[in-house]
Amino acid sequence: MQQQTKQTDSFSRAMEWLPLLPLILSSLVMWRFHHPLGVSADGHTYLQIARNIQMGIGLGWQALWATPLPPIIIAGVDSVLGIHDLLRTTGLIAPVMGVLLTASVYFLADGLLGRRIALTAALVTAVTPHFLWITFSTEPEIYYTVFLVTALGLLCRAVVRNSPLYACGAGCAFCCAYMSRSEGFLIMVLTAMALLISQGRQVFRTFMPRIIATTIMVFFLAASPYLLFLKHNYGTFVISPKATYVLIWMKSRVYHDNDKGEQGNDDLWGLTHEGKLKWQVPSGIGDLAAYLLVDPAKSARVYCHNLAMELPGRIPNNSGALHFPNVFPVYLSLLAFISLFVPWGDASAKKKITVTAPFLILLILPVFTEGWWKYLVPYAPLLVILASAGMVFAVDALDRKLFRGDRRIGTFVIVLCTLSIMTYYLDRYGDGLIAKLIVPKSGTTGKPAVPEDASRNIRLNYAEDARKSGQWAAAHYGAGKNYMVPWNKMIYYLDGFWTALPVATPQETYAYAIRNHVDLLVFEVREPEIPDMELISAAPGFSLDYIYHSDSSPYRVAFYRPITHLTY
């Protein structure tokens, strides 16, 4: 009897170490897929904020457009470790954030449903291709996802245990999520409202209002420095700094009022009478409602189409994830649906609301964009948790019916199903993930290019040309120069300050450059038919300083200095 007790104690102690299993797996996966990062389409904006911090000017105007917490983390780690290479530092932080995502999923699932389901969800999270894709990126999705899942885990414990301490933690974590992506604030509000409504008419006789109030109060207290920064620059209280940008962007790209696109859109990058970029004029819900009510039938038609593109199995895998599984796959969605009809133990309703309320954002996003995996992937960990619960509940039900509740058989089936999903992801999508993540040095492979490969090679060639031209300018002109350049990847390699090139008349552009103390105006030229001689007079108010020529393509970059004594 004593020997059996010792064996039981040894088994219990061994089980306590099981949570390390998904963390070890995640670490191995991060090691397997780790690679040097490239600058993504929006990533240079976040890296520029980090550079602004290191150069002593604070967040800069870019933080009125992009959220500042990921750059703050990157700048801080880079300075502490003495790396002095923001892109390399981002690549070092990436695997840490990937492992933290696995940990945060375990933390939330354990609070909701216990260790078995938490282990299952964390193991699947560690190998899900979309999560690996956002991990190895210079954009903020991985930060937002980690902080959001952590916030929900803390909020779950706060509402289940009536714990103000966990509520304070949830408020801080929601603040971190908000400062990683602005919709973090919206998720907090939606979840808080759902929890309060669930209490019915007795809501004010429960502890729920106190927990929610504590969470929101701590959120605003933690976010106050950034909110004051926004108020100082916008002149009014602002929660979503990119509201005007999104409103103008969606008019063109989602509702197709025009085909101005993004970079050359004068509604975005034009100048106001006060000399600000037009997207820097604050907008609110009233502006959005006024626009949607101009043509209600069109707004409803676009909304329904975009909503349909968010259904499981239909979400487009664009932006480099063409060959990945759907971010909300049907097989996980069905399992998740099953889980909602099974009791979750104590405080079951509160737990279910905490993990499902964030999906209410899927009813708001269609106003602004059609289904796009990058907007939806932060909520996929919640689907993984629900699907893991559905699988375990289904196996337990079969176990009770067929094998009289033999836990060993049920545990074996759960392990087998989990391993099957993990193997399916890694075997089917692992090679494609490596091909997408690792950017070759050259755009040529020696094989005949199919159209998709040819398009990718063009992008790679341009990225390489932009990198070389930016590095040349940084070496030639020195670090810390203020460049006026359109939004592109070269900005990171210039190693200086960035002033946006407005879509404006030559006189307005010159005045904007002088007002912002621009050192060099930068033009990219990709058309081989434009001779160098035409570039001499291409920028009125500026004198041509140098033309950089690519050694492998017609790509050129013209650098101009503003004529400081000129008056218009």
Summarize the structure in words.
This protein starts with a helix and ends in a 6-residue tail after the last strand. It has a five-stranded mixed sheet. Helix 9 runs parallel beside helix 11 (208-234). It has 568 residues and is mostly helical. The chain has helices spanning 2-16, 20-33, 43-54, 69-81, 86-113, 115-127, 129-135, 141-161, 164-178, 183-198, 208-234, 243-253, 266-269, 285-292, 296-308, 330-339, 348-356, 373-376, 380-402, 407-437, 451-477, 490-494, 506-515, 532-535, and strands at 482-485, 497-500, 520-525, 542-549, 556-562. The protein is 60% helix and 5% strand. The radius of gyration is 26 Å and the shape is globular.
Strand content: 5-15%
Which strand order does the major sheet show? 2-1-3-5-4
Radius of gyration: 26 Å
Unreliable spans: 438-450
Reading the helices and strands in chain order gives HHHHHHHHHHHHHHHHHHHHHEHEHEHEE
Distance between the termini: 98 Å
What's the total count of β strands? Answer: 5
SS-based class: mainly alpha
State the helix count: 24
Q: What is the overall silhouette?
A: globular
Helix content: 55-70%
Average predicted local confidence, pLDDT: 87
User: Quick one: biggest sheet?
Assistant: 5 strands, mixed
Question: How would you briefly describe this protein structure?
Answer:
With 568 residues, this protein is mainly alpha-helical. It has helices at 2-16, 20-33, 43-54, 69-81, 86-113, 115-127, 129-135, 141-161, 164-178, 183-198, 208-234, 243-253, 266-269, 285-292, 296-308, 330-339, 348-356, 373-376, 380-402, 407-437, 451-477, 490-494, 506-515, 532-535, and strands at residues 482-485, 497-500, 520-525, 542-549, 556-562.
